[in-house]
Design brief:
- The chain is of the alpha/beta class.
- It folds into 2 domains: 220 residues, 3-Layer(aba) Sandwich (Rossmann fold); 130 residues.
- The protein has 16 helices and 11 strands.
- The protein has a 5-stranded parallel sheet.
- Helix 11 crosses helix 13.
Length: 361
């Protein structure tokens, strides 16, 4: 299948040219089994201009020191835990770190409440197991086992969604850097370069707390929401532009004014007060993260492109904003209606947005 038909290529495929340019312009020492030096990994995520003139696009908009701490952690015997509310780029950062460090972001364990211990350790090809008994040919390696053998970064998404006994399967791997296979009387010892990046948030229902024994094996980095309005608008604008190309949405279909209004709404509802601090507001249960803002704009672009004049307007955003804010049909609806009446209706130049949102309530 041609690359043009891939809906979401892996980071190492999308940014292959940047990774190649960084490797060619990287004068710093590289740890064993790392494709780039720690300096180049940080440059890949934060962006910059190389000596040969290559422009590296920023992948993360935030404090450089935070990414430096994350990369430095992966040089030690501790693993990295990225913690934050949903939509703070935890998964995005973990994928790009793996792509830059080992050129492979696909060694992924997606945490769910129903995940078994086999997904962390190993499984079996049961047809071979029954026919031949336990053997290396019958063993099915997990992403963790593959990462240990090949000296690569393994990603575990939503670590706190895993049940406690499944979480604990990681303790021996992270502390002893070995994975016992008692059925074969063997063990897999980690190769240099192996490490693990996990993500977690404490806002979702169904979260399982990490044991103190497991938490000690991680260095925790808190992923914050964007500090300023300008920074968040820039993130949304940048990601919308890139995703719009992949989805073949018209260039320029998301005016900066509409993005600014959307980000203002999300930031005010998150903080529980208006931007000027004069009016207190009820905060909905929804996270209203930057990632959700990006989704709202994308949906608005699609509506404008296929059912409008091609340029996103208040009417195109209204349905998605309402859906993003109202997760609880009682509590959130009350908070949203109050915000519309107290803030949106009274704000200069926002009458079109007020009317569009009122139609949907």
């Amino acid at each position: 299948m041609a690359d043009t038909f891939i809906l979401r290529p892996h980071a190492e495929e999308t940014y292959a040219a940047e990774l190649k340019a960084l490797a060619a312009n990287d004068p710093h020492p590289r740890p064993l089994n790392w494709q780039l030096s720690p300096w180049a990994v940080v440059t890949y995520l934060m962006g910059g201009k190389l000596k040969d003139g290559t422009e590296i696009e920023p992948k993360y908009f935030g404090k450089r020191r935070l990414i430096e701490v994350a990369v430095a952690t992966l040089l030690t015997d501790r693993s990295l835990l990225l913690v934050g509310v949903p939509g703070t780029a935890k998964t995005w950062v973990s994928e790009h770190l793996a792509a830059a460090i080992c050129g492979d972001s696909t060694l992924l364990v997606q945490g769910t409440a129903g995940l078994s211990e086999e997904a962390i350790r190993y499984g079996w090809n049961y047809a071979k197991l029954i026919a031949e008994g336990p053997s290396e040919q019958a063993l099915v390696a997990s992403p963790v086992m593959k990462g240990m053998r090949e000296g690569k970064i393994v990603r575990v998404e939503e670590l706190t969604r895993l049940l406690s006994d499944v979480q604990d399967a990681l303790i021996t791997v992270l502390s002893e850097k070995t994975l016992p296979v008692p059925e074969l009387n063997q063990e897999v010892q980690a190769t240099r370069g192996f490490n693990l990046i996990a993500t977690a948030n404490d806002r979702d229902k169904g979260v399982n707390e990490l044991s103190s024994a497991l938490r000690r094996r991680f260095n925790t980095v808190q992923m914050p929401l964007p500090e300023s309005m300008e920074e968040e608008v820039g993130i949304v604008q940048n990601r919308v532009a890139r995703l719009g190309k992949a989805l073949e949405l018209p260039e320029g279909s998301a005016p900066i004014r509409e993005i600014q209004r959307l980000v203002t709404i999300f930031r005010e509802l998150r903080s529980g007060k208006t931007a000027d601090g004069k009016t207190r507001l009820k905060s909905p249960t929804a996270t209203l993260s930057t990632a959700e803002a990006i989704s709202v704009v994308q949906n608005g672009q699609a509506l404008a492109a296929h059912f409008g004049d091609g340029v996103m307007k208040a009417r195109d955003m209204a349905a998605s904003i309402t859906g993003a804010v109202i997760k609880d049909p009682v509590q959130d609806k009350t908070a949203w209606e109050e915000y519309l009446q107290i803030v949106v209706r009274e704000r200069n130049g926002w009458q079109d947005l007020y009317e569009a949102c009122q139609e949907l309530i």
